[in-house]
Structure formats: C-alpha cells, structure tokens
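User: I'm putting together notes for a lab meeting next week and I want to include a structural view of one of the chains we've been expressing. I don't have a solved structure, so I'd like a prediction I can at least talk through. The sequence is below, exactly as it appears in our construct file.
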Amino acid sequence: MPKEEPNTYKNLEVLGPEHEFSLVDEELKALPIVDKVIKDFRGRIVNFVELPNFTFGKELQTHVMEIKPNAPFKSPEIFERTMQEAVLTVADFLESKYKANLLGTGMHPLLRLDEANVWSHRHRQIYKAYSKVFSLQRHGWLNIQSFQLNIPYSDEKAAIQMHNWLAEICAYLPAISASSPIYEGKIGDLVDNRLHFYIQNQKEVPSIVGDVIPEYVSSFKQYRKEIIERYSLDLADAGVDKCILHKDWVNSRGAIFRFDRKALEIRIMDEQECVKSDVALSCFIRALTKGMMKKKSGFLPHEILVKDFNAIIKRGLAAQVSHPRGQTARQICEYYYDIAWKNATDEEKKYLPLIKKRIERGNLSDMIRKTVRKKSQKTDLEEAIVSVYLSLRKSLIKNQPYF
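Assistant: Thanks for the context. Below is the predicted structure for the 403-residue chain, given as structure tokens.
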C-alpha cells in the first residue's frame, strides 16, 4: 500500500499545480512530438525534463505535455509568475524549433481519434496494462486535458475532513471550470464534454471512477479497503498487469488521496486558457475549502451531489440543482464565492474577482461556445473554431483571461 511521507506542510499551506497542454501547429493541428521535444533537451527520451524552476514531460497522448513546478507554492503570485515563465520557456522553444505552440482548454477542438498516439517509450507498460482492459481509442483517454491541483494535509483527521468537503465542492466546481464545449470540429451537446468522456473511459471496471464525486469516508483504513483495494481486485480479476494494482493514482475520482505526497489531488477541472485563470481556480478552491472546514453543518447526501454533478456537466451554471442554498448551479457558486472571499488571504483576493466574472458571465466553455456560434454566422464552423482557439492560444502566451 502507498506509504506516507513525513509531514512537510500544514493543511492547505501550499498549492501544487499540474497543467496539461496540447502541442499544435499554426492551424491548430495536434502535433505528436512530445518525445522529440524531450530528446531535444535531454539528448534521449525520458519521461520528464527538470529545469531550474519547473518540470515538463509526457502524458498518455504524445501531443499533450504536462508542465508542473519543482516545488509547490505558498504564494499565488509566485505560482503565477513561475508557471507563466515555464509556459513561455516551452512555447519559445516550440516556436523556434517546430513552429509549434501550446494550447490549453479541456479538449482539443479538432482532433480525431485516429490522429492521436499513445506514449510508447519508458513506462509504456502502464499504458499497455490499461489497454488490456480498456479501449484507449476514446476521447476520455486521447483527448482530455485537465488542470490538477494538489493541496496538503497534516494529519489523518484533517485529511478526512478535507476529502469529504472536497466531495461537495467537486460536484459544483465544473460549473466554473468547464472549458471543453467543442471536439472533433463540432459543438458538443454538453458544457463539460471532457468530464462526460472521462466518466466513460473506464466503464469496464467502474469501481475505478465510481461516481467521479468521491464517496464520504471516515478513515484512511476505510478508504484503502473500500476504494483502492476494491478497484485493485476488480483490475486483477480483469487480468491487468500488477504495475497498476494497489496504486492510489489509479483512482479516477474527482479528488483522490496521494499518500506519497500527503496531499489531496483534485482532478475535476478542465485546463483553463491561461495560468492566471488556473491560479484563480486554485485560490478559490483553497479559500473555499478552508471555509467549509469551519462549518458545523453536515454533508449533503452523496446521491444529491452525484445528481447535481451530472446536471452541471450538461448545463453548467444554468443547471437545476438540489442544494439547499439555491436552485441553480450559479446560485450555489455565488454562495461558495462568498465563503471563499471571507476566508481568502489578501493575495488570494487579487485573483478571486476572475472567478466572480466566470460566475456572472459564464465559464470558459460558455464563452467559447457563444463566440464560435457568433463567428460561424459569417463563415463555416471549422474556420470559426480555429479563429477562437487561436485567440485562446494567445491568451495563454499573454496570460490574459478570455472574456
């Protein structure tokens, strides 16, 4: 079983981001060249390249690159500065060597599944193990980009409390964080298409994903027995290689324990259009979690969270929900925003207004869908999509939220 590292950080003391970006050419075609870029830096193909302040490397798909810091951040401003420098460093190299660019958001808007490749180098045995049970030729594997956030806990009691409040937060967070309205050159039916495909990608062994919204637990022992051990037994029964058995990172719920880091990893969010927006989401989550952990009231029933979550994937902020604090997801997000603001640091308050704009004007998915539809009235749909996503590519480089 995963062992815990010695305590390093206090509860919620730092923010540990992980960003995923597509590599694209000037016409947004996905470029499966992550291995080539790594070889350019290291002289051979490895999983990750560590530079002074950040690390970049592979994901399952060869057109998707992960960029993460070498250490988590106490300060949101240092988070923004460091990760924007990382984006520019990689982007400058891609432009000079390959005439390529980085692109955020939760899904590549034009990618066809037959155009995507799975990483075939070191650690490929992990993907081979998955491919024995799951068809990797799905959008839920080959065309998803998430923004993941790691937040630390100091002891088991705090960790369990944090996990259970994050279960509620995760149900409503996609109303703000959705950024995947388009895939395969068409406007999808849902606000958060990434999560729609994510839910389905391991349906052959449903205990891995569960309801995406984490179940409430009362101890690490219960979590290990009822979640990790359960999906490990199910995977073993399906005949997978032992390299993915009894691993906490195999758990695909929206928030999971990473025992080796003494952290909770939040996976529910689509990657945004720029680092500043990812920082804003991080500040919102940390301040909101801090506020929720002070509450005396109990947790909402799990089945209500799952029902509301599924409604939000479809309709976003406009979704009808069963939360006692409001009838729509937008009303719940406004309620959460008030809690976050009251519990935010001065630094976090510099970023929270961006979240307020998302709640008032629409999430990034809403904004993309609206703009593409408007542009498509004067040109064909694919040209409209390319035009909007080229603007989003510029948002990433300039670190300017897209409104």
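A couple of points you could mention at the meeting. The mean pLDDT is 95. Residues 89 and 342 are 36 Å apart (CA to CA).

User: Perfect, that's what I needed.
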